[in-house]
Amino acid sequence: MGSTNGLINAQGKQPLLSFGVISDVQYADIPDGRSFLGVPRYYRHSILVLQRAIQKWNRQNPKFVMNFGDIIDGFCPKEQSFNAVKKLVEEFDNFNGAVYHMIGNHCLYNLPRDRLLPLLRIHTHDGHAFYDFSPIPEYRLVVLDGYDISAIGWPKDHPKTIEALKFLSEKNPNSDKNSPNGLTDLDRRFLMFNGAVGKEQLEWLDGVLLDATKSNQKVVICCHLPLDPGASSREALLWNYDEVMDVIHRYNCVKVCLAGHDHKGGHSIDSHGVHHRVLEAALECPPGTDAFGCIDVFDDRLSLSGTDRMKSTEMIFS
Ligand SMILES: Nc1ccn([C@@H]2O[C@H](COP(=O)(O)O)[C@@H](O)[C@H]2O)c(=O)n1
Ligand SMILES: O=P(O)(O)OC[C@H](O)CO
């Protein structure tokens, strides 16, 4: 039992902070469909999941909400993309508090970074979408841009697009670079719908974690793409999840990594005791069902109270 209504929790402690979570809304004004592997996708219903999430959060009163990306779906008719993202952001703004967005592959199928990021109110230099904030002195949230090196979202002639296409041509021999056919085990992540954290962002992350360590802050990492094979399908992992985790494991401050993208969700604890929780997608909720949650933050754990298809998870720090 969490304390997401502002009351003390089962252990008798008041959380330091609470925040709402939702992922992969992937709204589109199109009939229901299926993923490549046949999983039903409810494109119009997903906005109702978001609306019910906001109603509940407004009763629970978390300090802020994190949207883990893919706010609209790649099948959204392209002439509707801008207004669809705007409509969804306006829905999020019905929450009585701050909302932090991150980008995902489906947002980038719809709009290039220079149009998408201002809509999502991600104001960073050079079109990057990584940032951090400290909602209370004891904690820092770090949002990673998993499509920093990517074949989607940057202009076709951008050095990052060229780097990503070169990388994919070396790692994935299929003509359809979204196909994992023939790739084995962890190599199945080398797909066009994934991406990587670039060198500059890795250096930035290292600096943030050093600063958090000096400030005695605990850190929660948020990224659309999962960072641990134990919590995710191989096909959904960040290309260089291992390099990112090497940086994270240099420090003891990171306690939890949260992600979306792998719609079925997952949870693992890695070899360094870091929790990885991949959030179940709002898009795949059959009509009338939900997937969102509220996380209570304590000094020794994060406690996710999930609604319906989002499983509740206690993440006790080792
Ligand atoms: N096992 C798979 C999964 C996906 N693909 C390709 O990716 C595209 C997007 O997949 P969705 O799960 O979002 O539908 C899909 O159209 C395929 O091209 C694949 O080849 N093999
Ligand atoms: O981003 P999607 O919706 O195309 O789905 C990605 C897959 O879930 C990754 O395995």
UniProtKB/TrEMBL annotation:
Top-level enzyme category: hydrolase
Keyword annotations: Hydrolase, Metal-binding, Zinc
Reactions performed catalytically: ADP-D-ribose + H2O = D-ribose 5-phosphate + AMP + 2 H(+); CDP-glycerol + H2O = sn-glycerol 3-phosphate + CMP + 2 H(+); CDP-choline + H2O = phosphocholine + CMP + 2 H(+)
Superkingdom of the organism of origin: Eukaryota
UniProt xrefs under InterPro entries: Calcineurin-like_PHP, Metallo-depent_PP-like, MPP_ADPRM
GO molecular function, one term: CDP-glycerol diphosphatase activity
Keyword Transmembrane helix: no
Record PANTHER family: MANGANESE-DEPENDENT ADP-RIBOSE_CDP-ALCOHOL DIPHOSPHATASE (PTHR16509:SF1), PTHR16509
Name of the featured protein: Manganese-dependent ADP-ribose/CDP-alcohol diphosphatase
Organism for this UniProt entry: Oldenlandia corymbosa var. corymbosa
Lineage start: Eukaryota, Viridiplantae, Streptophyta, Embryophyta, Tracheophyta
